[in-house]
């Protein structure tokens, strides 16, 4: 069973930066971390879950929600089985629980989430 563990959340002032990490483990089906598309989602209080950023298995493509374009950057290190989300110029509306997701065909795994709070 694939496990995803997010870290790096916390309290930051508006305009600040954070880097989230998601470490993956438990690959037993013969497919490695590099085979999975990785995504970051977030859920703010009282709002629907939102896809924030994604990166393909071959690091060919990246996508970003309009709300974070130019401020967030997703990357992955397949040697470390880790995906990152660099968040710059944070705004109060970025406050949410951020979740890591690994996707490969019907395989869909989620982390437990890490809280990001943007407040002065």
Give a brief rundown of this model:
The chain is mainly β and 120 residues long. It contains no helices and 11 strands.
Description:
- The chain is mainly β and 120 residues long.
- Helices cover 0% and strands 52% of the residues.
- It is built from no helices and 11 strands.
- The chain has strands at 3-7, 10-12, 18-25, 37-43, 50-55, 62-64, 72-77, 82-87, 96-104, 107-110, 114-118.
- Strands 2, 4, 5, 6, 9, 10 and 11 form a 7-stranded mixed sheet that branches.
- The mean pLDDT is 95.
Which helices and strands appear, and what pairs or packs with what?
Layout: E1 3-7, E2 10-12, E3 18-25, E4 37-43, E5 50-55, E6 62-64, E7 72-77, E8 82-87, E9 96-104, E10 107-110, E11 114-118
Task: Summarize this structure as a short list of keywords or feature phrases.
120 residues; mainly beta; seven-stranded mixed sheet; four-stranded antiparallel sheet; 0% helix
What's the number of helices?
Answer: 0
Contiguous uncertain segments of 5+ residues: none
How many beta-strand runs?
A: 11
Mean pLDDT: 95
Major β-sheet profile: 7 strands, mixed
Order of helices and strands: EEEEEEEEEEE
Shape: globular
- Classify the helix fraction into a percent range: under 10%
The rounded Rg comes to 14 Å
Note the beta-strand portion: over 45%
Q: Structural class per helix/strand content? A: mainly beta
């Amino acid at each position: 069973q694939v496990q995803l563990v997010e870290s790096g959340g916390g309290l930051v002032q508006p305009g600040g930066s954070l880097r989230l990490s998601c470490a993956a483990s438990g690959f037993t089906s013969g497919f490695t971390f590099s085979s999975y598309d990785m995504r970051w989602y977030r859920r703010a209080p009282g709002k629907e879950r939102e896809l924030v950023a994604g990166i393909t298995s071959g690091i060919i493509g990246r996508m970003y929600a309009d709300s974070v374009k130019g401020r967030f950057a997703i990357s992955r290190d397949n040697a470390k089985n880790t995906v990152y989300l660099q968040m710059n110029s944070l705004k109060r509306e970025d406050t949410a629980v951020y979740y890591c997701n690994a996707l490969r065909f019907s395989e869909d795994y989620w982390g437990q989430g890490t809280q990001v709070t943007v407040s002065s």
